[in-house]
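Researcher: I'd like a structural prediction for the single chain below. Treat it as a standalone chain; there are no partners to consider.
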Amino acid sequence: MTDGTAVPSLHLGFDETRTRVVLRTTEQYQHDLVQLAARFRTGGQLGPLSALIALDDLLASLGVLGTWPHPEGVEWASDLRTLVTGVIQDANTVKERLDGSPTQGEVTPSDVPGLLGDTWRGELSEFQLRDIAKLLSLQHGANFSVPGAGKTRVALAVYAAQKAQRRVSRLLVVCPKSAYESWRYETAVCFPQALRTHVLDGSMDQWTEVLIVNYERLDRSLAMLAGWLKAAPSMIILDEAHRMKLGARGTYGAACMALGPLATRRMILTGTPAPNGSKDLENLLGFVWPGHGQRTVVQAVAGGDLAYASSVLRPLFTRTTKQELGLPPVQLGLRYVDMPPLHDQIYGAIVGDANGGSARDDLSALGKTALRLLMAATSPALLLEGASRYEPLAYQLPPLDIPQDSSLFSLMQNLPDYELSPKYKEAVAIIAENAARGRKTLVWTTFVRSLTTLERMLEKFSPAVVYGGTADRDEQLRRFREDPSCMVLISNPATLGEGISLHHVCHDAVYVDRDFMAGRFLQSLDRIHRLGLAPDTETRVTVLAVRNTIDEVVAARLEQKLVFMGQILDDPTVQQLADLEEEPSVAAGLAPSDIEALLHHMAAR
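Model: Treating it as a single chain, here is the predicted structure.
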């Protein structure tokens, strides 16, 4: 990879997306370019003197470039050359680790304090020093530590060390809005003078050192962010990186993949790197090490031996587990309840309608069916439109007798008059019992009408409520944390599943329902189970499920996903739980095996 002073025989550079490489040549080598492009799986001609190859494909087959007839005339664009050099160096380091060979430039935990420079003052635990050392030993890195392990501080320490060595001078953080507070806090307390930090919200602070942007804003801010990264040596961090697990197929992932090559150093942070299996992990590591990361995951899991796969992948990431944090275990219980007769009759009718339609062959329709069944398992009345989008169900207490001559539709419209949802009944009982003992409860439910219904039913406990439409989220959280009369917080994992710590005031959680997203479940669990808990803290989590419904399918699928993730990460605590939002899925987070399980359930009903 050299720059020639004469006219190059072959020039390699990024296209505008930076996920593909453009090869350009002269008329003398026109035929050779056609032959070279044909040797790559994704190679194709742009014109007589130019060709296009996917970046991953090029990096996976760099040896093919050795067939070029005039290698001393090959010229690389500087940003592409930097990326390729970093990937090759990290691949060689990982290979040396796996071979047991001495690794050149290996950083030890004892080296870390001396590398952080004079501007660092944040306290670091032993496991944080270990993680920082491992991340500094590679050009780029992945931190898969559990929530509460201090991934934000570890990432800032890596940045501080790189800054002290004058390798980078600014930091781009991509994260969910719920993580803003954590980044602002850590950039203030870890340095004698707080780093100049700016959240991208339309305006731009040109002097900022740490620029924070959420995933939703990435795509429309791409040109501006690319210019900011190119203006000075930069580091990019993807926090809660599972949000771009779709890779180039998703809006968030495509934007991240386009920005990654512009950074001198790339790092991802997530406690749930493979919520639906190995494909998620491929895309995450493909961002960190284009070509090499994705190929390594594919090869590691190909044989089906997850213990072997874990040993191969382990040098690519660092992970602090809950066992290492010394957290007391979670008491996790799955509590089944039975549907009352009318609920069960309506649920069966919904399944029958789905079986008789075209939903079985349409991914989007199957996703909607899954959502309808998840709602119906809680209360079929949630499927009916209210006067407003968030109108709570008006339950009649005590319930009325069911009229014998009513049609199923009319009964469904007035269902709250006749039968109380068994899940709501159980949830209220648990919350009342906890409140009597002075214990606050965090209640999770997927659907907003379910959330507002519970808010009305739990009125005597002064509930705090947080969902997408909450006007003042901080005030609701303050009430829950500080107001002794507020004994319950009701939210959904899509809104509050990441970036919030509630473990100092709450040790009980109830899941009224769950969907197929294993990562979302794991993340939400960690709101009340994280670093800082007293050793004798009793953390109790109750998952409610209705027998003979989609709840049983969800429970089985989540267990399988948790086992896979635990084995890949070599973390038995994840398996014992046997597990945000990235882009909305048309199929409610359904993986192919989820669809198979759902169809089996529908057929059985």
